[in-house]
């Protein structure tokens, strides 16, 4: 029996609740200070026709020194995704219900609407990130992201939709750690709903990854390190994977990458329906658990585990044709 231990730790303005040895946070958010900046107060229009990139970045920079909250009222805010918005440490970015940050059409291969790079204690809550896959002006590349994390730590992403991106709805890399996706939706993205290429202590809970299609792997969630990347301690729980052209969840380490690794992956209590490949596909992965999931109308096997993986697959998983 695993003994649960409960700790309450205040870390640079965020109240983080740690449960058990995995130390996953509970998606609680507490601003670092009482400073609040409404983006309209620094010139953002949110009218769907004005480029609001500079105004939004000004608001985000305005809370970066002492920490605080940036509020995005209802509206459509156009952002030059070639530049994107950078969120710094100790920032809560709160998007109102009905607030949309929309990427302006471009022709570049690689970009992100929002970036959290080398920052800690960040929360992004509510609203929608809307990509430009249907207006994209180029034909190459697959790295146009809604939200990218690189070298980030103690980040909560909550109640936000990321859809119609040229690449991924969400991307985690650069040895990021303690990242929580809570009640998020990735819908209609071209490459993945969520890519995890480097990181540790990543929680996905109560979320939906749907309608991913366009360029492989086309998975709801793809755990796939780059050449020397490592991914460990990932929990995917109580989430939905529906109508993705690839797998619902794929964990894959290329045999070419001798220095990469995937370990301690837990996939529990999720629903997989009408995915184009396997519901769950596990390759070259250590200590994976696939427990208590339901699978319906997978185009291939419900669960596929290769001979190089070490995995526990419980009979509690249920399958329907």
TrEMBL record:
Source organism (scientific name): Variovorax boronicumulans
Domain annotation Right handed beta helix: ranges: 146-314
Location of the Rhamnogalacturonase A/B/Epimerase-like pectate lyase domain: 37-111
InterPro entries linked to this entry: Beta_helix, PbH1, Pectin_lyas_fold, Pectin_lyase_fold/virulence, RHGA/B-epi-like_pectate_lyase
Domain of life: Bacteria
Parts forming coiled coils: none
Name used for this protein in its record: Polygalacturonase
Organism lineage: Bacteria, Pseudomonadati, Pseudomonadota, Betaproteobacteria, Burkholderiales
């Amino acid at each position: 029996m695993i003994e649960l231990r409960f700790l309450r730790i205040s870390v640079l303005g965020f109240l983080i609740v740690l449960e058990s040895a995995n130390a996953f946070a509970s998606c609680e958010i507490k601003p670092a200070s009482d400073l609040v900046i409404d983006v309209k107060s620094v010139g953002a229009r949110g009218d769907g026709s004005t480029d609001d990139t500079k105004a939004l970045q000004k608001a985000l920079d305005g809370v970066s020194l002492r920490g605080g909250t940036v509020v995005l009222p209802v509206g459509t805010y156009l952002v030059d995704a070639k530049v994107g918005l950078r969120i710094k440490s100790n920032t809560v970015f709160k998007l109102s219900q009905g607030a949309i940050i929309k990427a302006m059409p471009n022709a570049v291969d690689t970009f992100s609407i929002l970036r959290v790079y080398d920052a800690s204690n960040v929360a992004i809550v509510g609203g929608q990130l809307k990509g430009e896959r249907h207006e994209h002006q180029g034909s190459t590349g697959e790295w146009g992201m809604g939200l990218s994390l690189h070298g980030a730590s103690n980040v909560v992403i909550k109640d936000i939709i990321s859809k119609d991106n040229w690449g991924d709805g969400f991307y985690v890399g650069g040895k990021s750690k303690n990242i929580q996706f809570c009640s998020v939706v990735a819908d209609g993205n071209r490459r993945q709903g969520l890519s995890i290429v480097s990181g540790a202590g990543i929680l996905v809970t109560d979320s939906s990854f749907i309608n991913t299609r366009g360029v492989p792997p086309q998975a709801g969630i793809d755990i796939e390190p780059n050449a020397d990347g490592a991914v460990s301690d990932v929990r995917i729980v109580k989430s939905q994977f529906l109508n993705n052209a690839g797998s619902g969840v794929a964990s894959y380490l290329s045999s070419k990458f001798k220095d990469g690794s995937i370990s301690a992956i837990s996939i529990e209590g999720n629903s997989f329906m009408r995915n184009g490949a396997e519901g769950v596909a596990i390759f070259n992965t250590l200590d994976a658990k696939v427990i208590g999931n339901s699978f319906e109308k997978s185009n291939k096997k419900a669960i596929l585990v290769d001979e190089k993986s070490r995995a526990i697959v419980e009979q509690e998983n249920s399958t329907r044709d």
